[in-house]
Design goal:
alpha+beta; about 350 residues; binds zinc ion; nine-stranded antiparallel β-sheet; 3 domains
Length: about 350
């Protein structure tokens, strides 16, 4: 009997303390809820010391600004030079302060200098006219050659980044302006040798596979988990990173046309063939989402789907695409983002 009674008081005790715990939890939740609604954490965005707005999505805003600085608007603006990036400061604001990311973005962008991308058509090293795209620049040269314009061999083009917007011309306008009547043929022998010389230059390969050519870069030294060996020997003519003409997403190694290019590591060919300004290119996909890109090749020895071992010949050095001389443009990518090849090679 006595034992049963003790048990009963003990149980009521437990029940009471349970209720108390539940009450405390509810009280805490209420307090936190109210705090969250009244004082949610936000960021004040400062530029040159001045608050230019507020955001509660710092990461997205930073990325949006970063992308615009690096890659422009994806159309005519190639990149933007900004003196100072904004700073973010945590504030516990009352709810009446509103986030205004769009205004912040516009303010930051307005302080920058946009660089426009054009292709300058050059005659004997002098800028003559401008077109908007790489394809148009190629077409100008091809058309002048097809029409046997006297100056066809001294016409080239370069990518031009300038802080002022340049008026572009249409392909036909450029061709008719630059066209020069050919001299009458001297003898059949000389015409034959010259035509042979000019036709030996470029062969383009039909693409197989697919390739991501986004220009995202990272200056971090990511660990690859794959060890790379040099695909080609030669002189480094351009390093990875920002140059006066924009972002260089790889490393340029110059060597003569026909020099063997070897796979930097074992992997699978996921692209081979012509790709715009890259010319003939090969992409080897390795383990861990690592890829290596080999561009401007004169000859390709593989097609998509092939597996290759480290050091295996995959292509030959050339100057196809947007290139001014024979060299290998090598890119090292992890999950699509370009990293400095010199962190791992050369
Ligand atoms: Zn390059």
């Amino acid at each position: 009997m006595k034992k049963g009674k003790e048990m009963k008081t003990f149980l009521t005790h437990i029940r009471k303390s349970c209720k108390l715990v539940v009450l405390i939890i509810i009280a805490f939740l209420l307090i936190f809820g109210i705090m969250y609604f009244l004082f949610r954490p936000m960021y004040a965005v400062r530029l040159n010391g001045q608050i230019i707005g507020y955001t509660d999505a710092k990461k997205q805003l930073e990325e949006k600004i970063g992308d615009y600085v690096k890659a422009g608007d994806g159309e005519n603006i190639a990149f933007v030079e900004i003196d100072e990036l904004p700073e973010y400061e945590v504030i516990y604001s009352k709810k009446d302060i509103e986030a205004n990311e769009d205004e912040v973005f516009d303010t930051v962008i307005a302080t920058g200098t946009p660089y426009y991308k054009n292709y300058a058509i050059m005659e004997s090293g002098e800028e003559k006219m401008y077109v908007e795209t790489f394809e148009e620049a190629e077409k100008v040269i091809a058309d002048l050659k097809a029409k046997k314009s006297k100056n066809a061999n001294s016409i080239t083009y370069v990518v031009k980044y300038s802080s002022e917007k340049i008026e572009n011309s249409k392909v036909d306008q450029v061709v008719s302006k630059l066209y020069e009547k050919p001299e009458p043929k001297k003898s059949q022998k000389t015409t034959k040798t010259t035509s042979k010389k000019s036709s030996s230059s470029t062969k383009y390969y039909t693409p197989t596979g697919s390739v991501n050519t986004s220009q995202k870069v990272s200056f971090a030294k990511a660990s690859l988990g794959v060890s790379l060996s040099r695909p080609v020997s030669g002189t480094i003519t351009s390093r990875f990173g920002r140059r006066s003409r924009g972002m260089h997403t790889g490393l340029d190694i110059a060597n003569s046309t026909g020099t063997t290019i070897r796979a930097a590591a074992a992997g699978k060919i996921t692209f081979a063939g012509r790709k715009g300004s890259y010319g003939n290119m090969v992409v080897v996909t390795h383990a861990n989402g690592i890829q290596t890109y080999y561009c401007h090749c004169s000859k390709l020895n593989v097609t998509a789907g092939d597996t290759v071992s480290q050091g295996q010949k995959i292509a030959e050095v050339g100057s196809t695409g947007n290139s001014t001389g024979p060299h290998l443009h090598l890119e090292v990518r992890k999950n699509g983002i370009c990293y400095n090849p010199q962190n791992y090679l050369y």
